[in-house]
Each structure stands twice: as structure tokens, then as C-alpha cells.
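Handout, page 2. Input:
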Amino acid sequence: MKAAAVLSYFSLYLLVSTARLSAQQARFIWLWYGIPSLLIVLAPKRWSALAQGLAIGQGVYFSREAIVLLALALPFNGLSNGMVSLAGFVLAQAFLFIAAFLLGWPSKTADIVLFGCGAAASILFIVLTVHRWEGTQSKPLALNVYRTVGCLDRYSLAHGGLYPASFEELTRTTGNYCVTGPQSSGPWRPQKLVYQPAKGSDGRIVGYSIRFGPDDFWGKVRTAWYVDQTGLIHTSPEGQVANEQGPIWSNETLELKNWSECYAKYVATHPSTGETFDWKLVLRPEGRCTPDVREIHDGHAPLGQFYTAHFYVKPLGRGGSQPGFYVTARPNQYGSFGVRSYYFDETGIIRATPQNREPDSADEPTPECEWKEHVNCSGN
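Output:
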């Protein structure tokens, strides 16, 4: 049985070779999943019943999972290198199971207990390890953090521009809806959020940052994304931790910037009066502008998947002059699909606010890195 356990341990190489894993991931799986096999090899003779149980449990779990995978993949992939490696792994696990089975069932009560504990421990260890590993592979869902950011903004409005010291304080004030899972800034599935308050010179909390993303096997944030009170989500290079200088996650300002430039050019050469301004002419599909907004109906149009843009003509000025236009863009559901609302007019300056209200010309201009690709956000 010890020889079969050695073979089982090295057969894990065949398993990791069938998956697209980095060298670090492959080494981890090989070492961690192979712990039951190593325990079987190292177990003294007086604990042979325990080692037998470990072998039975591991053999049953791995064989069942791998056989199902083979049955599903073999008709489509045939005898590819991956299928041959997977079949070799299955045979090694089957050999371990048979070797343990041939030792016979323990007869003494103490041995029966050890056998049962070994089998249960082996299956439980592998199941928890597989579940934990799959949890670390989940990709962060950026939209999930908007609800928390929206609640923090509501908290700030109710507390004179200050923010809470922790998620616990936030949920005590706004309810569990704002931060699901355990009432802490610690981990929960499917991702971990870590809240860091930012204090001003007087010690009051005037800002915050949240790093979030899937965690590693040991519960630490692996590749975090970053968001703060601006509502801008920053991504991170692979293997690094994001900060406020990182590139902006997918947002609507790239298209808004293009629209604003098109509008400014059109207004400069096509004076308009009153409500006769036709937005479809500005964004006509003949090639004047990149966006082709033929879906403008009743003064609004979809902007991406989660936003709606609204088009307005400014009131006539003195003497009947036409001063221009303005456009607002708001998330279809604040706190679920976004928290930033945008405003721009014929000046071409895009302004934004993270608050749940209509944006206007008094809001702060968006940083260049938000609407210009490959620009560092150090000035944000």
C-alpha cells in the first residue's frame, strides 16, 4: 500500500499537467493534494488502519471525480495527451484503492475507528481543499462593490461629509444590505473587501479606500482592485495590489469624451435655435463620429450596458441666441450598476459626481486617466 501511495503522489503530476496552471499553482496542487498520500507513506505500522482509511477515502474521491471527467471529455477529445495523463492518474488512484482493499477490513474496534476516521478525514480534506481552491479562482465582480460605495456616500451625506471607521459602523447605521456577509472588513465569498478609513489632519475620517478581489488559499487578498470615495474602480497588474494610480476599470467616459468632441465640432459649425437641435445629426452613421447613436428616443439613449444618456438643449439666451447643449449620463440603478453620474456640454469638459443625484456644471472635472487610455492616475 505504501508503494501504491508513492505512485499516487507522483501521479498528481499527470493531473496538473492536464490543466492550464502556472508553475506556482502546479506546485501548490501537487504538494497540497498529495498530503494524504504522504501521510500513508509516513504512517507507522501501528497506525496501518488509519493509513488504510486514508487510502480508501482518497481513492474513492479522486477516482470518482476523474472517471466522470474522463467520461465527459473522452468523446470530444479522444486519446489526446491530456486524456492519457488523466487516465494514468485514474489508474494510480485505483491501484491505491485496490491495495488498501486487499489488506482486508480491520477487526478490532480501535482499528475500525481509526479506519473510519482516516477515510472521513481524507475525503473531508480533499473536498475542502478543492472548494477552497475553486474559491480562489473566482474573478472579482466589480459591480458588487458599488452597493457598498453607494451606502458609504449616503453615510457621508448624513454625517457632514465624514465616513465610518469600519464596515461594522456602516451596517449599524445603514443596515446589512450595504455589506453582505460577516459584519467586518474581512473575507467572505465570492470575494474579500478590505476597508481602510482615511483620516484628515484633525483625526476625523474624511475619506476611505477599499481593496477587493478573490483571496488566496490562506485568506489574503490575492490581486486586489481598488475603489475610494470617488467611485472610480482601479485595476491592478497581475500579481500586484491595486491603488489609486492604477488604470481605470471599464467605464463610460471614453465614449462620452468622443461624444463631447463630436458635439463641440457640430455646434461650432451648425448654429441651432430652440428645440430644433437634432442629436442624431451629430452622431449620424455616415462617419462624422465613432459612436452611432441611432437609438436616441425622446432625448435619451443607452450608454454601454449599465448607463443611460440624456440629451438637453440649453434655454435660449438673451436676444434668442442659442448657448448650446448639455448631456447627463446616470447608472440605470445607482449602487448596482455604478455610482458615478456624468455631465458635459459644448465646452467638452466631462464632469462627474459619485452622489446619487443629477450631475451639473459645478461638479469636478473627471481626471484624464478616466477617459484617456494608458494614462497613469497619479494626479487623481
